[in-house]
Write a structure and sequence with these properties.
The longest helix has 17 residues. The chain has one domain: Alpha-D-Glucose-1,6-Bisphosphate, Chain A, domain 4, CATH 3.30.530.20. Strands 1-7-6-5-4-3-2 form a 7-stranded antiparallel β-sheet. The radius of gyration is 16 Å and the shape is globular. By secondary structure, it is of the alpha+beta class. It has 3 helices and 7 strands; from the N terminus they run βααββββββα.
């Protein structure tokens, strides 16, 4: 089954980010090991479920997509699949995210059903995560660099997202804190 955006989805033409986050961590494992887990579809489920907000993960269809230029500058979630054997690999998925509006008051939690795609360029060591829900679109670029003479890997992520103006404050605050928490747990994938 393929996760399909709504037929009238104007992404990326109408994408005007109004919240952002950026963070970096270093994992004490070589690039080949780290990229396989955090940079490809092989570790996608484990990576997403590291987040305390995520649950109910499901892998959907995988295909490939033609990208003109650099992946980090592309918008591929609504792009048509490339012919088999061409383009960059793209994995579709969906999961549930629980946003705690007021910690300790579970009845105020908001459950958001997200659908997304994860696309990667193994040669350039870059991955692109794009999700959408009813009202929120998120685009995350993940870059990998060798560190400590090849014994470690630096992972840098930038998030850009768009949400309704009424949700912007809580979305910005939640995006920054959950992004740091999530990335700080990446090393757990290698224990």
């Amino acid at each position: 089954m393929k996760a399909s955006p709504p037929k009238d989805d104007p992404y990326p033409a109408n994408f005007s980010p109004n919240f952002r986050a950026a963070f970096s961590v270093t994992v004490l494992h070589p690039m080949a090991t780290v990229f396989q887990v955090l940079g490809t579809g092989a570790g996608l489920e484990r990576t997403i479920l590291l987040s305390s907000m995520a649950g109910g993960f499901e892998l959907l269809m995988s295909d490939s997509v033609a990208v003109v230029g650099a992946l980090e500058d592309a918008y591929v979630r609504t792009a048509r699949a490339a012919p088999e054997g061409e383009g960059l690999p793209r994995q579709s998925f969906r999961f549930m995210e629980t946003v705690k509006i007021v910690p300790g008051f579970a009845f105020l939690d908001v459950n958001v059903k997200l659908q997304g795609t994860f696309t990667w360029d193994a040669e350039r060591r870059v991955a692109l995560y794009e999700t959408w829900s009813d009202k929120v679109v998120v685009r995350k670029v993940r870059r990998f660099e060798e560190a400590e003479g090849g014994a470690a890997t630096k992972i840098s992520e930038t998030i850009e997202g768009q949400c309704p103006a009424l949700l912007q404050y809580i979305t910005q605050r939640t995006a920054q804190s959950s992004h740091r928490e999530h990335m700080n747990s990446y090393s757990e994938l290698f224990e």
